Amino acid sequence: MLRWVLFALFFGICASAGKQKGKQAAKSKSPDLSRGWGHNIKWVKSYSDGLAEMVQSQKPLMVIHHKEDCPHSQALKKAFVANKSIMKMAREDFIMLNLVDESGDKNLAPDGFYVPRILFVDPTLMVRTDIQGKFRDHLYTYEPADVEALAKNMRKAKVLMRLEL
Fold first, then answer.
1. Sign of CA pseudo-dihedral 134, 73, 37, 124
2. 61-65: strand order across its sheet
């Protein structure tokens, strides 16, 4: 009889510990904010978080609008991750945000809502509409072949920020 009581007590303790461990694992498991755009980059969760961190850090915010099921977004993502210069600048010099849903801020869609679309915001909270890609109908889009132009625009965003602040 004593064995059964001890067994039941031991079983109850183990079951309770397992539930607590499961709860802790669920709490510590945060969503992957990179969404494949670079796991070694610190990504902010939302546009408002990005603005707050940008003002505090005095680094420009780079906002990438994309869709998970868009082949153009997927192709650009692969080129973005493969470019060491872009990855280094994204990791060290920018507050990074990628959005699969629109932020609701019309300033982030100066020429329309399309994907992929990349815009820069400086620490004065100004969307840099002067930093554009090569297309005239979608000013803020880039193709995989345009990663050098994107890297050049990232450098431009850093320089403009230093000159104007």
1. positive
2. 95-99, 61-65, 117-121
Quickly count: other Cβ atoms within 10 Å of residue 87's Cβ: 17
Copy the structure tokens of residue 33: 């904010």
The terminus-to-terminus CA distance of the chain in angstroms comes to 78
Instruction: Phi first, then psi: give them for residue 139, nearest 5 degrees.
Output: -65, -25
- Tokens representing 46? 């939302």
Contact 93, 86 (CB under 8 A): no
Encode the chain (165 residues) as per-residue pLDDT tens digits.
545 444 444 444 545 555 555 444 444 455 799 999 999 999 999 999 999 999 999 999 999 999 999 999 999 999 999 999 999 999 999 999 999 998 888 999 999 999 999 999 999 999 999 999 999 999 999 999 999 999 999 999 999 877 775
Cβ pair 90, 62 in contact under 8 A: yes
Match 């998970």 to its residue by tokens. 68
User: What are the helix and strand counts (H, E) for the chain?
Assistant: 5, 3
Which DSSP symbol is given to 164?
A: H
